Amino acid sequence: MTSPLLPPSTPSSTSTSSFSSISTPSTTSFRFATPSSTSSSHSAQVTTEDRINSLKEEVERLRAQLGDKDPHKIVQKHIELLHTYNEIKDGTQALIGKYALMTNSTIKDVHEELELPLTD
Questions:
Q1: Region Disordered: start and end of each range (predicted)?
Q2: Are residues 119 and 91 in the same domain?
Q3: C-beta of residue 17 within 8 angstroms of C-beta of residue 39
Q4: Do 86 and 42 belong to one domain?
Q5: Is residue 24 part of a domain?
Q6: Is the same domain home to 120 and 78?
Q7: pLDDT at 34
Q8: Structural domains in the chain (count)
Q9: Upper half-sphere CA count for residue 62 (Cβ side, 13 Å)
């Protein structure tokens, strides 16, 4: 009995399949690699080692780009800048709201008048 995954070792001459014109050599066989195969585990190990080495190189490149700066201080500075931005934006929105009340228009109309985006 032949396995459904493996082709017959010799081509069938009585085949009525539409693929009968395709000839396969009698030496053709499909073999699946087992997980314990030493060649595949070796190539996987080399690939893993290459990946580790490339990641280490990327870490070193990013550290060099960062320089002697303290990452914590950089994050703190960004947080301070975001707070400042948000305070300015909140104040601007309050002024736009008051201007809209004074001119009996909507905030949307003021945004369009000043060519400001309606979303963040």
A1: 1-50
A2: yes
A3: no
A4: no
A5: no
A6: yes
A7: 58
A8: 2
A9: 7
